[in-house]
Amino acid sequence: MSMLEIIDFGKQFTIHHLGKTRQAVKEINFNLEKGEFIGIVGKSGSGKSTILKSIYRTYLPDTGSILYNSDRFGTVDLFKASERQILYLRKHEIGYVSQFLNVMPRTTSRQLVEQALLEMGEPEEVALSEAEKALTHFELDPKLWDNYPNTFSGGEKLRLNIAIATVKKPRLLLLDEPTASLDQQSKLKVRQIIEKLKVNGTTLVGIFHDIEFMEGLCDKVYDMKARQLVREAGVSNEG
What we know:
- The chain is α/β, with parallel strands linked by helices.
- Helices cover 31% and strands 26% of the residues.
- It has a single domain (33-62, 82-230), classed as 3-Layer(aba) Sandwich (Rossmann fold).
- A six-stranded mixed sheet has the order 6-7-8-3-9-10, with helices on both faces. The protein has a four-stranded antiparallel sheet with strand order 2-1-4-5, with helices on one face.
- α3 packs across α4 (124-137).
- One of its GO terms (cellular component) is ATP-binding cassette (ABC) transporter complex.
């Protein structure tokens, strides 16, 4: 089967104090083979992040199925997977990069990247070496490696967030505006990592407002307004 298949997916939110329900997304359908990259485009509020958070199971879908081809569990409907399965998948198979960095207090940036590898069972010396390579690639100043990231700038936090997620070489990587606050040089670093992950078989789902960044990178683009899949990046004007 495909690495990821989304079938008739829909999600609504209830605004309890107003007694109202809002339909965030509906009738979403697409699939990805191993190593493919789909970019999701659309206006703010169109439900792009809702799709990613539902794949990651931060949100529970209301309708449809999200089928993921797990290395350990086989075909899993992420809608129905157990909490134990979801925790395993997040730790070992599915990565998520958001615009925001949520980290444990009193943990340095070097330790955060190391921990991502240690929890996968990598030896300490490998985790240390790979962490330093990742931090170097994303040009995080070595003076910051042993500092707590709550003091970092927005761009530094985002680069660290990307390093933590990509160092694990996940089977499926979800990217929620990963270049939002980055300069052009840092964007190129992100692109290099994405290209390398694709070559090694990682499947990716990403949200970008920077359509130029997607050119030649995505295999497919899903347009939220049209609710349809297109093959060429840059076809949709919505962003």
